[in-house]
Amino acid sequence: MAETWNVSKLDVDIRYVDDIPIIEAKGECDLITSRKLKEAADNLLDTGRNKIIFDLRNMAYIDSAGFRILLDAKNRATEKGGDIILVSLTEPVDRAFKLLRLDELITRVETIDEAVARLKSIA
Q1: Strand 107-109 versus strand 10-17 pairing type
Q2: CA distance 98 to 111
Q3: Could you tell me the domains of the chain?
Q4: Which of 9, 101, 106, 120 has the greatest count of CB atoms below 10 A from its CB?
Q5: Model pTM?
Q6: Which stretch of DSSP H or E encloses residue 25?
């Protein structure tokens, strides 16, 4: 009898609105898959992008590894005079986000347009 392993999956795409990168994350972000999110954020930050939107409308799950990446991206962006904003958190992700009190550290909004406007207002 063969064993079946359910491995979480995370798809990460990057697009731009008004020259602001938007990392679209879809699926589940955990210890195994979070490296995709980290690579995307690190690549943008390493190339001088200090204003980043994370579109999480299709993220079903995120664990502490994923939240750590978001906090690291927030800290690196802030050090460079920018910021990150999260958009459209799903109910389970939002629940964990609030439980960890990350809503006190990272801005979240409901639309891409609102996130773009907020990031454009940063000098």
Answers
A1: unpaired
A2: 19
A3: 12-120 (3.30.750.24)
A4: 106
A5: 0.92
A6: strand 20-29
